[in-house]
Design brief:
The protein contains seven helices and eight strands. Helices cover about 30% and strands about 40% of the residues. A hairpin with a 3-residue loop joins strand 6 and strand 7.
Length: about 230
């Protein structure tokens, strides 16, 4: 199994085509037999959960049996051809699942892997459906955690992605090593306190946490390949 995350940026004048894509790309993805799970995504402006959408930036997260299935999609699908015509930039990262806990729309899209011993660069996906009566508490705590993450040792990049504004949100981040991920996740007081609140106050009706081994990165976003330094 491999997971692809493709981020597409449109010129401002072509934002209507980006919005149109969110509607019409659902049909070809539904008939994409090579894909076992997919989500069309919007993006936040600040690289994490964000109340302010970036209308120029959109994404597709998809799960494939192997690299051949992704390559066929990327080469000749209606969706990929649309991107080549209308997108200003396109960046893709390919990953292998290492661990995954929780559900996404009732599914376990990455299975239930529990691969231990890996020590290299790591991508992390944190996704949640936020209870409507907990939105205020959630958004009140987001900015402080995002600021800490961006300054943490080993942090490379992050993207705020989501299926719907405000309440169906995800963050995809990439780190230099497993130890860097663990240091951020478990030793920072502020982050640990937010995790405690999510459990004690029941912020989420559904959540998923997954770790991946990134093995390929190509294209650009905002003029660069965010993972170029990793030489994947």
């Amino acid at each position: 199994m491999i997971v692809s995350l493709t981020i597409i940026r449109y010129r401002k004048a072509l934002i209507p085509f980006a919005l149109l894509a969110m509607a019409i790309h659902r049909l070809p993805m539904m008939f994409q037999k090579r894909c076992t799970f997919w989500k069309l995504l919007g993006s936040g402006k600040n690289g994490t959960f964000d109340l302010h959408p970036d209308w120029q930036q959109w994404g597709l997260l998809a799960v494939w049996a192997d690299i051949k299935d992704f390559t066929a999609f990327n080469k000749s699908s209606f969706v990929s051809k649309w991107w080549r015509v209308f997108a200003k930039e396109q960046w893709t990262v390919l990953c292998e699942p290492l661990q995954s806990h929780g559900k996404w729309d009732g599914n376990e899209p990455f299975g239930s892997p529990d691969i231990v011993g890996y020590t290299g660069p790591m991508a992390v996906l944190t996704r949640a459906t936020i209870r409507l009566n907990k939105l205020k508490a959630f958004w009140r705590n987001v900015d402080s955690v995002a600021a800490i993450m961006a300054k943490s040792p080993g942090f490379i990049t992050s993207l705020g992605i989501g299926e719907a504004p405000f309440y169906r949100q995800a963050t995809f981040s990439v780190w230099r090593s497993v130890d860097d991920v663990k240091a951020f996740a478990y030793t920072g007081r502020e982050h640990a306190e937010v995790i405690r609140k999510t459990r004690a106050e029941g912020w989420y009706s559904e959540e998923l946490f997954a770790r991946f081994k990134p093995f390929a990165s190509f294209g650009t976003i905002n003029g660069i390949d965010p993972l170029a330094e990793l030489n994947l």
